[in-house]
Specification:
Helices cover 44% and strands 16% of the residues. Strands 3-2-1-4-5-6-10 form a seven-stranded parallel sheet, sandwiched between helices. Strands 7-9-11 form a three-stranded mixed sheet. Helix 2 runs parallel beside helix 4 and helix 4 runs parallel beside helix 6. It contains 13 helices and twelve strands. The longest helix has 23 residues. Strand 1, helix 1 and strand 2 form a beta-alpha-beta unit. Bound molecules: nicotinamide-adenine-dinucleotide and thymidine-5'-diphosphate (TYD).
Length: 354
């Protein structure tokens, strides 16, 4: 079996659903259930003995050690993290706790477990750390996309904490020989993404006639990947990736934010011709330290591991919009008081800037 951390979040829950649909191997899912963790994402697995959920923290060494001893996983996939840049700007502490200290403690428990394994199990064991392209910092227009050799230059507390965890993972391979794999992926979108991130926030706001807050001039560029393509890449890296290596994952889909928001409005207009959406677009105060452009060069994973994304942005964004339209109750259930307080806090100063 495998141990997945953060499996009640956006990417982790997609990963678990895909994994269990394609393999007989069991999953132990360790998740702290922060505001971003939602067991409703996994409700289709209720009663499924192949999914074992454990409520807990990756930083709880005793708990993690007990789970490792009990379930003897052949691999750990670490999704658990604080993941939202804006939240890291308002309060970096949780990011340091989970992304840095939490990963460190998870690595410590893993090292002790791995050291005690028999030779074959020790050789076959993998620790796969799920990271982000944001560790590389910001690109200027026309600069070549990030390769795995690009220097680390994180700019936000979020990306700095992820960079720190990547370095720890690397050091555990270099120093102790732990068979680690690191993936650095671009921006994901798709089902179950918490509506604080750009794409689900814009869909959810548009559906309720709320303004669509575009930071700054809206010309910041991100490289977008449909979440199930990220999951297939992780499965591929786990299966055939070389221990100690890092793999960039991306969809060759660079787009400025304003184009994303306009596309969402266009597609909603197609579905609801009598409604108006584009007038909801509102330029607001920019995010402090906002990275201008991310772009992933995915040549290594494509050539060495023979992975390619299945979705284009055009197919992925349609699927995503349909998912949110068909899951109104999921949206209502995540829009708790805490969610409303977050919107209030993050967008309080968001008067129209242009
Ligand atoms: P998310 O915020 O939706 O989910 C994170 C999950 O981790 C939640 O279920 C949360 O409860 C859990 N968690 C948080 N702290 C924990 C702790 N201390 N112990 C155990 N569980 C804890 O995040 P996501 O978007 O699914 O991202 C998953 C991973 O992928 C993160 O490591 C993130 O850095 C990385 N990543 C995300 C993107 C993206 O676009 N979302 C892109 C590249 C990489
Ligand atoms: P986000 O989804 O938060 O991901 P990240 O910051 O990790 O790339 O934001 C994606 C882009 O969209 C980023 O350039 C910030 C921008 N953005 C807005 O313009 N308005 C918003 O309300 C949000 C949440 C993001």
């Amino acid at each position: 079996m495998i141990l997945v951390t953060g499996g009640a979040g956006f990417i982790g829950s997609n990963f678990i659903l895909d994994w269990l649909a394609q393999s007989d191997e069991k999953i132990v899912n360790l998740d702290k259930l922060t505001y971003a963790g939602n067991l409703q994402n996994l409700s289709s697995l209720t009663g499924n003995p192949r999914h074992i959920f454990v409520h807990g923290d990756i930083g709880d060494i005793e708990l993690v050690s007990r789970l490792l001893a009990q379930y003897q996983p052949r691999a750990i996939i670490n999704f658990a993290a604080e993941s939202h840049v804006d939240r890291s700007i308002h309060g970096p502490e949780d990011f340091i706790q989970t992304n840095i200290l939490g990963t460190f403690r998870l690595l410590e428990a893993t090292r002790a477990y791995w050291n005690a394994l028999e030779t074959a199990a020790k050789q076959n064991f993998r620790f796969l750390h799920v990271s982000t392209d944001e560790v590389y910092g910001s690109l200027i227009q026309n600069e070549p996309a990030f390769t795995e050799e690009h220097r680390y230059e994180p700019n936000s507390p979020y990306s700095a904490s992820k960079a720190s965890s990547d370095h720890l993972v690397r050091a555990y391979h270099h120093t102790y020989g732990l068979p680690v794999l690191t993936t650095n992926c671009s921006n994901n979108y798709g089902p179950f993404q918490f509506p604080e991130k750009l794409i689900p926030l814009m869909i959810v706001n548009a559906l309720t006639g709320k303004s669509l807050p575009v930071y700054g001039d809206g010309l910041q560029v991100r490289d977008w990947l449909y979440v199930t393509d990220h999951c297939s890449a992780i499965r591929r890296v786990l299966a055939v990736g070389d221990p100690g290596e890092t793999y960039n994952i991306g969809g060759w889909n660079e787009k400025p934010n304003i184009e994303i928001v306009q596309t969402i409005c266009d597609l909603l207009k197609e579905l609801y011709p009598d409604s108006m959406f584009h007038h909801l677009i509102t330029y607001v105060k920019d995010r402090p330290g906002h990275d201008r452009r991310y772009a992933i060069n995915a040549t290594k994973i494509e050539r060495e591991l023979n992975w390619k994304p299945a979705e284009t942005f055009e197919t992925g964004i349609r699927k995503t919009i349909h998912w949110y339209l068909e899951n109104r109750q999921w949206i209502a259930d995540v829009q708790t008081g805490a969610y409303r307080e977050w919107l209030e806090k993050n967008y309080a100063e968001s008067q129209s800037s242009q």
